Amino acid sequence: MSRSARSRPAVLAALVLATATLSGCGLSIPTDPSGTLAAVEGGTLRAGVTPNGDFVEVSGDTPRGIEVDAIRAFADSLDAEVEWTVGSEEALVRELENGGLDLIAGGLTDQTPWTDKAGVTRPYAEATAKDGSTLKLVMLAPLGENAFLSRLETFLSERSTAGAL
């Protein structure tokens, strides 16, 4: 019997033990290392928005638009209030990286340059650009906060399927 054939049962036993140990610890996947989803649920969703046509319009203190409505509905689904921050994409991404925001919206597309600085949702809707091209819309979340990102993607997908966005 080869050495690798003899070690297979040991490797399998180690994997089973590790799985059982992690399951017993209450580990869930996906997870949020910084606890974004847990902090937002029943609390405050800190949303950054940048003005961009019908997606996000800002006049006065309260933003409005298609994506603003979606963010409000997402917050409602988490029993959370929304705290708005308006700014440029760059300023908002910096704030997201520093832990001051939970998501960013503003007509962002799957071609966003911020993929190394933020978690990007799967495209949840399409829009037509002035040149006739198709834009695939996304939102940004804190990098690595996968439970939050997953919940946001699921919400946006269900909302899009229902024709609400």
UniProtKB/TrEMBL annotation:
Offer one Pfam family short name for this entry. Answer: SBP_bac_3
What's the source species for this entry?
Microbacterium radiodurans
PROSITE patterns in the record, alphabetically? Answer: PROKAR_LIPOPROTEIN (PS51257)
Keywords annotated in UniProt:
Signal
Keyword Chaperone assigned: no
* Entry protein name: Transporter substrate-binding domain-containing protein
Q: What InterPro entries does the database record attribute to this sequence?
A: Solute-binding_3/MltF_N
- The answer to whether UniProt assigns keyword Signal to this entry is yes
SUPFAM superfamilies documented for this protein = Periplasmic binding protein-like II (SSF53850)
Q: Where is the signal peptide?
A: 1-24
Solute-binding protein family 3/N-terminal domain residues are 59-127
